[in-house]
Amino acid sequence: MGASAIALQGLQQAEYQLNNAAAGIASAGTGSSNGDNVDVVDLSAEMTALMSAQVLYEANLATLKTADQVEQNLVNLTG
After folding, report:
1. Using CA atoms, how far apart are residues 74 and 66, in angstroms rounded to an integer?
2. What gap in Å lies between CA 10 and CA 67, rounded to an integer?
3. What's 34's DSSP letter?
4. How many angstroms from the chain centroid is the CA of residue 7?
5. What does the pLDDT look like over 26-52, one tens digit per residue?
6. What is the number of other CB atoms lying within 10 angstroms of the CB of residue 14?
7. Section 9-38 average pLDDT
8. Domain count, the chain
9. CB contact at 8 A, 8 and 64
10. 63 is in which domain, residue-wise?
11. Which residue, among 8, 3, 1, has the nearest Cα to 67 in the 3D structure?
């Protein structure tokens, strides 16, 4: 598996993590089915998950850009 494929897989993982954290934050303050307002969302944990997803996304994007540059340099050297 090449660096590009690994980076794309990491981007997908970051997107999944981001969606889960966003869903957790969006559900904050919503009531339960019986009308009680049960707040079971730890916003600090969800924000940490959001920041972690952002760092994961940025790191994998940088890897993808680097792999692209390496491939361009290889094409330039052989062409």
Report:
1. 12
2. 14
3. T
4. 11
5. 887 666 566 555 556 678 888 899 999
6. 20
7. 80
8. 1
9. yes
10. 3-78
11. 3
